[in-house]
């Protein structure tokens, strides 16, 4: 993920999306930009215990609607959220990249640098969303794996 932005950049991001600059929104942005993995609402709740669950849910919801973050599911079906790094916009995400689920540490990584092939659907099908998942071991967990060849 991108390097951590400062509060002025977060304020500009909120302005760009016509969102009020509140302390909880700025904190959520700071936390999400500081991670190199997707994160779940329960994980955010555990480190942001001064932001109540409903407020955090609403922040994540509006950030997703505005194209600031996108939702990706882990191997257990839990929704995780990751920062959008492309031209995502209101109600339209361009997160057509590989989502890697590590079976060791259970983290979800957005592999934005991979170029995915174009997918042509059969006649009559129209895709409204596209998600590609892979699972295995991330580099950190692979190094810990003694069975590694």
UniProtKB/TrEMBL annotation:
Organism: Mucilaginibacter glaciei
One Gene Ontology molecular-function label: DNA-binding transcription factor activity
Positions with a binding annotation for Fe cation: 93, 95
Matching Pfam families: FUR (PF01475)
Binding site for Zn(2+): 102, 105, 138, 141
InterPro entries attached to this UniProt entry: FUR, Fur_C, WH-like_DNA-bd_sf, WH_DNA-bd_sf
GO terms, biological process: negative regulation of DNA-templated transcription; regulation of secondary metabolite biosynthetic process
Family indicated by similarity: Belongs to the Fur family.
Cofactor-binding details, from the entry: Binds 1 Mn(2+) or Fe(2+) ion per subunit. Binds 1 zinc ion per subunit.
Protein name per Swiss-Prot or TrEMBL: Transcriptional repressor
Cofactor: Mn(2+); Fe(2+); Zn(2+)
UniProt keyword annotations, A-Z: DNA-binding, Iron, Metal-binding, Repressor, Transcription, Transcription regulation, Zinc
């Amino acid at each position: 993920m991108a390097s951590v932005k400062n509060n002025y950049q977060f304020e500009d991001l909120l302005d760009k999306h016509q969102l009020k600059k509140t302390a909880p929104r700025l904190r959520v942005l700071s936390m999400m930009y500081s991670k190199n993995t997707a994160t779940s609402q329960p994980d955010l709740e555990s480190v942001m215990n001064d932001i109540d669950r409903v407020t955090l849910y609403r922040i994540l919801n509006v950030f997703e609607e505005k194209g600031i973050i996108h939702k990706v599911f882990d191997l257990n079906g839990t929704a995780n959220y990751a920062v959008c790094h492309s031209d995502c916009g209101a109600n339209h995400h361009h997160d057509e990249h590989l989502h890697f689920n590590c079976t060791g540490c259970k983290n979800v990584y957005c592999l934005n640098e991979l170029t995915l092939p174009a997918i042509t659907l059969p006649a009559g099908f129209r895709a409204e969303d596209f998600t590609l998942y892979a699972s295995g071991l991330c580099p950190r967990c692979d190094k810990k794996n003694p069975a590694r060849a």
